Amino acid sequence: MREQSEGKLDFPWPAQVDRLLLEGGFDLILSIGQVVPHEVIGMANYNKNIFVGTGGSEGIHKSHFLGAVYGMERIMGRADNPVRRVLNYASENFARHLPIVYVLTVVAKNERNELAVRGLFVGDDAECFERAAELSLKVNFVMLDHPIRKAVVYLDPSEFKSTWLGNKSIYRTRMALADHAELIVLAPGVREFGEDPAIDQLIRHYGYVGTPAVLDAVKKNADLAANLSAAAHLIHGSSEGRFRITYCPGHLSQREIEGVNFRFGDLAAMMMRYNPATLKDGPNAVDGEEVFFISNPALGLWAYRGRFEQSR
After folding, report:
1. How far apart are CA 122 and CA 125, in angstroms?
2. Which tens digit of pLDDT belongs to each residue from 215-247?
3. Is 60 left (phi over 0), alpha (psi -120 to 50) or beta?
4. Distance from C-alpha of 288 to C-alpha of 272, rounded to nearest angstrom
């Protein structure tokens, strides 16, 4: 962990999985999921499903924190990164005896603007994942020649009910946004910050205040130090002061939104100005203003070419 975090972390990471996987006596364990750009581990799925999906809380929290400390913009869209290397080490050294077969899909919109399976990869080793990640980078990654000055991201209310999930609007666009840009998040279904009460309270208390402040809070406060996944989330959800985030929630007040360090936007007014039903994915002209629209941030990763190359 010290090596992979470039000396920033100095604690052990436990390779934890649910007891049933080890003691269930299975002839076959199928791990099924979608490979797509991911804020914590670069590309989702593969052995993340084992060591995080069925992992223990300590392993989950510490792996999340490793990714946040290393830097999201150095990880997003990359199959090879410190978090994945730690999980790969665990697979090779501790889990080779488990009869795991991975069934990995890559999903993207087709020419009719409908979601479709673009690739199916089945295997029991890293090659299966690496091939899926290579395809995902091609079909889920939007590389832009110019940074975005204003982005509008729509969060489907049936899928996004918290900023814990809704902040994919920040994670997936940050490498495409210009300095001093504005990100407007249309979030009609968002009614809470965390997916559980404990994390919700941590987010409300500490807010999305940037990496230095979060690292300092972890050192000084036992409640945040005991929940490193929440600490990582607070880092991921901050613009680090580089661009503005205007959140337009359906069920949170202006006081609540501003309390976690976002700007508040009135949902009805913003939905009227930036109507998701009429905007198309990509650049749009709205009353003479250029706006980049994203209808589902979970399915892609957007980056300005120069920033992506600089973050390698």
Report:
1. 9
2. 999 999 999 999 998 999 999 999 999 999 999
3. alpha
4. 16
Residue 124 CB burial class (10 angstroms; 0-12, 13-18, ≥19):
middle
Residue 55, pLDDT > 90, answer yes
Q: Is 228 exposed, middle or buried (0-12, 13-18, 19+ CB in 10 A)?
A: buried
Q: Please state which of the ranges 5-9, 79-83, 86-90 shows the lowest mean pLDDT.
A: 5-9
Residue entry with tokens 């973050």: 311
**How many Å apart are CA 87 and CA 119, to the nearest integer?**
24
Quick one: 3 exposed, middle or buried, by C-beta within 10 A (0-12, 13-18, 19+)?
Answer: exposed
Contact (CB, 8 A) for 128 and 45: no
Provide the phi-psi class of 223: left if phi over 0, else alpha when psi is between -120 and 50, else beta.
alpha
Beta-bridge partners for 182: 150, 244
Q: Average pLDDT of 176-201?
A: 96
CB of 79 closer than 8 Å to CB of 47: no
What does R_g of the chain's alpha carbons equal in angstroms?
Answer: 19
Q: Which two tokens stand for residue 129?
A: 């994942």
pLDDT tens across 85-132, in order? Answer: 999 999 999 999 999 999 999 999 888 888 899 999 999 999 999 999
Residue 153 near residue 185, CB atoms below 8 Å? yes
* 218, 219, 227, 229, 311 from 234: Cα distances, Å: 11, 15, 11, 9, 21
